[in-house]
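Hi R.,

Here are the chain sequences for the assembly we discussed:
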Amino acid sequence: MSLLTVKNLRVTFDTEAGRVEAVRGVNFTLGRERLGIVGESGSGKTMTGRSILRLVRKPGRIEADEMTFDGIDLMKASERQMRALRGPRIAMVMQDPKYSLNPVMKIGRQLTEGLRLREKISDKEARAKAIAALEAVKIRDPERVMEAWPHELSGGMGQRVMIAMMLIPNPDLLIADEPTSALDVTVQAEVLKILDDLVKERGMGLIFVSHDLRLVSQFCDRVLVMYKGRVVEEVEASKLMEAKHPYTQGLLNCLPRIGGGRGPLPSLDRSASWAEA
Amino acid sequence: MALIEVKNLSVFFEAGDRIVQAVKDVSLSVDAKESYGLVGESGSGKSTILRAICGLAPISRGEILIDGKPLETPRGRAFTRRVQMVFQDPYASIHPRHTIDRTLSEPLAIHGIGNTDARVVQALKDVGLPESFRFRYPHQLSGGQRQRVAIARALMLEPEILLLDEPTSALDASVQAETLNLLNRLREERGLTFLMVSHDLAVVDHMCERVLVMQHGRAVEEMEHGALANASMKTDYARMLYEASADRMLG
Amino acid sequence: MTITETPAPRSPSKLWRRTKTVLSVVLALAATFLGLLFVTFIIGRVVPIDPVLAVVGERASQAQIEAARTALGLDRPMWEQFYIYVVNVFQGDLGTSLLTRRPVLEDIKNVFPATLELATIATIFGVLTGIPAGVLAATRPGTWIDQIVRIIGLAGYSTPVFWLGLMGLLLFYGTLGWVGGGGRVSNEFVDALEFDIVRVTGIVLIDSALAGEWAVFGNAVKHAVLPSAVLGYYSMAYISRMTRSFMLNELSQEYITTARVKGMPEWRVIWVHALKNVMVPLITVIALSYANLLEGSVLTETVFSWPGLGMYITNALFSADMPAVLGGTVVVGLVFVAINMLSDVLYRLVDPRAK
Amino acid sequence: MTTLTEWLRDPSPKSRLQARVGQSYLGWLRFRRNPLAMAGALIVLALVVLAAFAPLIAPHDPIAQDLSQRLLPPGTPGYLMGTDEFGRDILSRIIYGSRVTLYIVAMVAVTAPLFGLLIGTVAGYAGGWVDQVLMRITDIFLAFPKLILALALVAVLGPGIENAVLAIALTSWPPYARMSRAETLTVRNADYIAAVRLQGAGPVRIIWGHVMPMCMSSVVIRVTLDMAGVILTAAGLGFLGLGVQPPLPEWGMMISSGRKFLTDFWWVATMPGLAIFVVSLGFNLLGDGLRDVLDPRSAGK
Amino acid sequence: ATPADTLVIADKIDDIVSLDPAEAFEFSGVNIVNNTYDSLIELDPNKPGELIPGLAESWDVSEDGLTFTFKMKEGITFASGNPVRAEDAAWSLQRVIKLNKTPAFVLAQFGFTPENVEEMIKADGNTVTIKLAKPFAPSMFYNCLTAGLAAIVDKETVMANEVNGDMGNEWLKNNSAGTGAYVLRSFKPQDSYVLDRREGYWRGDAKLKRVRVNHIPESATQRLQLEKGDIDIARGLSNTDVAGLEGAADVKIETAPKGYIYYIAANQKNEILKKPEVMDALRWAVDYKGITETVLKGQMMVQQGFLPAGYLGSLDETPYSLDVAKAKELLAAAGYPDGFEVTMTVRNDQLRMEMAQAIQNTLGQAGIKVTLKPGAGAEVLGDYRARNHELTLQSWGPDYPDPHTNASTFAWNPDNADEAKLTGVLAWRNAWDPGELTAAVDAAVVERDTEKRKAMYEDMQRKFRDDSGFVPMFQEIAQTALRANVSGFHTGGTIDSATYWYTEKN
Ligand SMILES: Nc1ncnc2c1ncn2[C@@H]1O[C@H](COP(=O)(O)OP(=O)(O)OP(=O)(O)O)[C@@H](O)[C@H]1O
Ligand SMILES: Nc1ncnc2c1ncn2[C@@H]1O[C@H](COP(=O)(O)OP(=O)(O)OP(=O)(O)O)[C@@H](O)[C@H]1O
Ligand SMILES: [Mg+2]
Ligand SMILES: [Mg+2]
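And here is the predicted structure of the full complex:
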């Protein structure tokens, strides 16, 4: 059974300068698997992720023919029901840890807050869980980080804290919005391993948003390629390199590679037709 | 003789009660018209080295020479005409209340260079932005476009040396490609010298003649361009970096 | 990999840092203070009111005036007067008021608690109403609630205090009889307050409670309610407006979304996550408005016959009672500096980014 | 017409002029769409019109006394807002008073924030001992009882509206200084400041061109919030003989002299009070609208 | 409600400088002295102007008018329990001269100096003998002895509290040491004072045990408190509030003329104001009637002489009234057909500001453009004393209940030169040379025939009224509002010192 079904999702912003359609009719289903979403900046990846949590800020509007998570109709759920879903059932690793952590709350508080509020467990237990989570994401000195303020962390640490924070309540669905962009490759690999384990062992569903096509092709099961708010192609991750859509091909081609030539990188010639249905 | 020489540089920050050693005893030298890369772990002091050259971070020990001459503090006007920097975050490095035009003409105004209009238009053309962008505000541009504005701004004073702090890490693949191509083209046309930070080995490999690998504020290993592709690095850390990257590259 | 250790520079000892901070604070304090004294002193000399006239009155002859001038030391050179004054101040002697003929310090000990009482209650009132009002407005920008908060705030800002005070007295004292009408307690209780209750702090509410005189306490509450509400209205107006603006800014930050992603209830998002951040700039706002209230509001004090610092300083000013003006200013300045420091400390507690 | 609006709305202007005009036009559109801001602008406009055409609008001479017509309630034929203790028409006095009020408000609103902004940004940007000295001075002025300061200033300069304005400005700049200093501290370390510095910009250029614009919006809010306070302070000074002198009508003075009659003849003090309220409301609404216009980011994409 | 045995008065008492009788000279301070001390002879609070015995049983003046003797009453004690002796009385008067505080001139004008005073004032058994340097009208001397400064203080108690040879001056600022009906219980400057009844007062104990006077500066607040019964007497009401209280069931209003004269002084150093026609024009350009009937209704009465009604020789004629045409004519005659511009300094209290604006209005009609310059009391006064004013609106209250007090300041100026610095003399301050009036004043004060003396003052005032640098305009009226159950409260009328001990509540 699929965990999440999204049919014809649209996100629209009515601004002074007119209407911006950030997401235009996105369809996909997700089982207990790793779904990658790739696409260039501004293609609507983040907005797609946020709409699932119904956390698009005003003046944004979410419309969908269907959006069901585990049998729950997300479009009709009350704000209260949504709140119960957010965190323990659906979690999202936010894109920019620098701005996404509360600057005047210690990391420890932010990590344990959800646990204490929801599960009514003791401070000690909550703390132990949080430290375990930090260890899992390879934070070197979790005790110290628990007591640290967000501004004392480097970008990479922030990202890992964010991942730990979202994994603590063991969600059924994790939306990870560029979770590893600030990590150097070695750490990145370890973090991905954790996510991988969760999907395999616990059957968590994972939506992995990134603009790094190679990473996605290696790590995910299926990939959605987005362009200007639409899904232009959906492919098996392992077959991404053979993707047919010129946009996808273009994105792949323009990456430099080690030992590759010094000549100009091929650039993407966008075609207006891609944006159309 | 090297154009940029960093000799035994150490940078310490006072943070609260602690002393943070961001850069420890790093030496490097960049020849004229060379492109030199800095890679390594996040937080290893790459940005700090660039900032120290510009006078935005203190030089606690060691010295930095440009053209064999030590730098004056604060950096004078002559320095700013020779050395310019492109910051990592294109969202934070452009004044949100100024039009692109203002941002680009500001350096001209500072140095009393005339013929502003023509120069601004030319600069936009050089970085491949349409002229119509001239009077827009930064919030009306995408990240890649902003980064190009930042590059254009750095080039306004026609410097010899460009310090590039992860110029493409905030950009997606297609825009990254455009930006890298742009930088290479400009270097060729103008004979620029690059000192470039990145954590993407592929980018550095694509751009640079020599690479310095850093970890924990220290220089770990310096490699020639070919060494990376041949995987002939000597230290464990450099190899680890390479393997983790190559893993993906080839997969 | 082997890394050769370069010796790290030693972090200066904690003790030295502490002393340095303390020293610089003390130095800044002293500088402000001396500057304050200096400016006050100069002002005392340029105001076109002859202090001697205030002392001797209208009938005095020229000889009596000259005698008084000498007695007050006003015939000495300016710098000498200033020097003497500063030396005395640092010995805790603010001089003798020309008007009340008592040591200024003693006068201020009498009037300041009254102002302190009023200002404190008013600030508490302003904070307790202003922050919720501002938050309420910020969470519903553009709605009628927002507008109402704005109008109420503005009304507070543009209404002269005596208008509010007198209208309040007319309604709540004159017509409804809910509150006391001027003074710190009613005349039935004032004898008890003056002669029976030991004066500990000079703040009626505290002293009467300490003495267990609950009737006096209750009466004092009735008297303090209206003037502090009137003053509190002003700080409420200001605090709510600032809270709204800060809050709007915070609510558009990403970390708010993060909190929501975690499934935090809305109250927690607003009152814990956002408010903690709002408190950072708000502390300065509150401290400033508290400090301003502590200067005393002449008009409020006049309308409510509240013998406070504002009235004291103003009276002194108009009578060219320079020792009293200087003394009052010095005390206000001290209070101000103290509150500034307090707000700095709080600021550091709340905002980890401030070193 | 359409070509003009097109020219104005052109997303890619061809010249600096077009860009600037177009920007103002967009600002105006944004402003116009905000009904409250428009209301504020209308109120302020009305004030300006009142002040400009006072002699044409006012039904009576604002100064002429008629002791037989004193303290008439509002609504008395010929005296819409009633008369004061000297039998002068309150409406006419309010209309004429708008001149003085506008003058004072305009002068203070220009001088104090500007001065505060200057001190605050310089202190915040320079840091070190400059910051210390400037902030100590700010503290001194902030800690000073306002009245004493104003009195001293006028004592030196002599009474008169101009000096009263100066006195008010002098007592009201410190909060602006503190505010803009705080803001400057956060802006100072931004990359875009580092960038101009790297281009060799001197402190003057950085502060004036790059730091100050960032402090503007909070200053605007505060200024509009302080409007009513300025009018009332001016009244206080007038009463001390330092500001506007009777019989010249000035709203604050009208309020404070109406205080004596508040219990029995409420309108004498309340009518000018309402005038102050409406005007300060107008400035506030306008200020909020202006802040949106000042910030290009709110323009939408 | 107020406690049954306490009289609670709301007043403005921030003028109190000192409670030492030798120093107290302000309205509120003298009120306290009047109720805590007695003098040798006093004025009857019930019958204005009449002398009654105080601590002296009888008194006498020698044929040559130079030596006065006072026989002390027996058996009276101070609040401390010490008996009242002639020595206390003599010492008290000597003390005034020796301390030489502001009010000392009231006695000093009779020729006492710190050097000779022990010779001139002597106690002998139970009589006090006082010698004057030259003969004065005896009524003049008696009147001066009724002023607060002549109160008899308890020498033993006061001297026990002497510091640095101040004759107890410091101590008396916060304590009383007299024979009066009340003793000072507490005094908080600018806040309140409390008087407690003294048991065994020689005139019979005061009716009420305690008198509390609160400083309540705001008229509206006083009015509300009175209406609610939270005070018994309101003494600082504005005329509008008094008018508003009229007809209230449990409040009554009592009015009595006060001694204060309101006048305009026109600096005679000023070329324009020096012209007699200009001064005349000023006199005809004030709306005396309009002001007393509207703006300051109930608070002022027209008074065009320098003596307040109730004083020997006071005038009740008011020849001047508003006549703009005449004023214009006079100005034209003076050479100012288009009028002129002039400034007028005023104290910035509301009453004076209202008066000034009304005057400004009618002067303006006549062509005299007046710019008002409000200022703090001391500021305006300083200006006046330095002879720097042009016009100034001022008031003057008599220092002792004798016509000489005002005559000697308004119409007496022996040396009009700047260097003379007779700053205590109004005529000098105004740079006005009264000419022959100076001699007339000197003559009147020694005239022993009361009828003749009266005529002299009347004559003097007419000349002054028509031909001086002053425009006397109004005399103040005290408006006191009391709860209906309060009776026997005396404000003291033109001598301005209230009497509490006859006051009752029922
Ligand atoms: N408040 C808003 N008003 C108008 N348009 C908006 C708003 N927020 C987002 N958008 C638009 O929605 C589109 C999708 O944005 P989104 O953040 O989903 O992109 P993304 O794919 O996550 O890009 P990136 O890789 O840069 O994170 C963008 O074109 C953006 O301009
Ligand atoms: N102003 C500062 N105060 C204290 N510590 C600082 C400061 N600036 C940098 N650091 C510290 O110095 C170290 C090096 O920082 P730097 O920014 O040079 O790293 P980087 O190699 O550029 O990393 P990244 O790849 O994440 O940009 C970090 O540990 C950082 O925390
Ligand atoms: Mg995104
Ligand atoms: Mg960096």
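The pocket of magnesium ion (ligand 3) is lined by residues A 45-46, 95, 177 (CB under 6 Å). Chain C has two domains: 42-92, 111-354.

Let me know if anything looks off.

Best,
T.
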